[in-house]
Amino acid sequence: MIRVVLADDEPVVRVGVRAVLAAAGDVEVVAEAEDGRTAVDLVLAHRPQVAVLDIRMPVLTGLEAAAELRRRDTGTAVMLLTTFADDANIARALGAGASGFVLKTGDPHEIIAGVRAVATGAAYLSPLVAKRVVDHLSGTGPRLRENDRVAGLTDREREVLGLLGAGLSNAEIAAYLHVAEGTVKIYVSTVIKRLGVRNRVQAAVVAHQAGLIPDTTC
């Protein structure tokens, strides 16, 4: 069971997200907060696998709460809930310790997929959020620049990068490619180093920019 702390200053949103997560069957919301400071305290008290945080909250924003949790090294993965109006905040959060970004108004299944992904150490960007992040970070012509950026990767490294960008965990990438999970860990570390990014989320953005995301439903 994936244990979650949920924080949003809008009660209606919390009710909706809690209902979505309850329907997953393998996710349990163990505590709720309406501000970022309380969310941090609840994470420290309950030590959940995932904290689902609204970006805009009183006392501490979701960005500030994510940074605080990272500083305290809680081991809890952070997934941020956002709206289209928060593009700049999403870009700023890439290095703040968050592992996932999901739209409040998007497909409810994306919230479940995001929680499951970040709980396993993977990064997750819902498709519309990924597009907004890419547009915000890249301006015009991102595909050309990012194709140049990944040109130095081997075919296998590009494949791993694309699967990472699709939100797959190391274990899922290993199963998809029919290789050992340890091999995938080495590939992921190598890709992050060669791209010059700091974490899986930033690598996932590069994958989206370069058009490397495969259809993993086939």
TrEMBL record:
Domain Response regulatory: 3-119
Record keyword DNA-binding present: yes
GO MF: DNA binding
Domain HTH luxR-type: 146-211
Presence of the UniProt keyword Oxidoreductase in the record: no
Transmembrane segments: none
Pfam families (alphabetical): GerE (PF00196), Response_reg (PF00072)
Modified residues (4-aspartylphosphate): D54
Domain of life of the source: Bacteria
GO biological process entries: phosphorelay signal transduction system; regulation of DNA-templated transcription
Keywords assigned: DNA-binding, Phosphoprotein, Transcription, Transcription regulation
UniProt-recorded name of the protein: DNA-binding response regulator
Native source species: Saccharothrix coeruleofusca
Lineage: Bacteria, Bacillati, Actinomycetota, Actinomycetes, Pseudonocardiales
